[in-house]
Design brief:
Elements lengths: L1 E3 L7 E2 L17 E3 L4 E5 L12 H4 L2 E8 L5 E8 L25 E2 L10 E3 L3 E4 L2 E4 L5 E8 L5 E8 L4 E10 L3
Length: about 180
Amino acid sequence: MNYQLNVDLPAYASGSLVAIMPTKNPTPLGVLLANGTTYYIPLTDSGGTQDATGPISQAGSVGAHILWDAAIIATVTIEVCNFTQTIQGAGSGTDITDSDATAGHWVQWNPVFGASNYGNTTAGGVLTNYSLAIAGGTAGGAVFGFPDSGFRRYRIKIVVGGTGGRIRVRPHGKNGG
């Protein structure tokens, strides 16, 4: 089963529950991120509802495609979490949000796969395992794949440096054929 999303994902500033929705028409597309700020983009289909447990998180294999403009300078990493958004058993109450910055709640996913690295990038970015450095000056893109990783929740962490700009993210998930 394929879990294809035909929308760009929203971003959240660190600790914020307010979604920064992507521009939809016509250009520039994506979310506008300010310099000197950390953002999170949950790889989900929740549409900005702070619940990264939709069908994408249920997929056996997950991938993400990231595009950026020529202005932004940023470091992009992948983080994972196996805890739910709400407190289990209580039916309500917040446990770990998609934008939670508490140490240990979300953990960087950065395995070393050697020559078979599950990611790639174009000009303007340098990808080392699952850490992407965007130097600015050139628009580009990167893809990340998480085959059979088995985590409940995934998010992209973006630490924007001296210059902000736009980033677009679109995930895809797949089980079996």
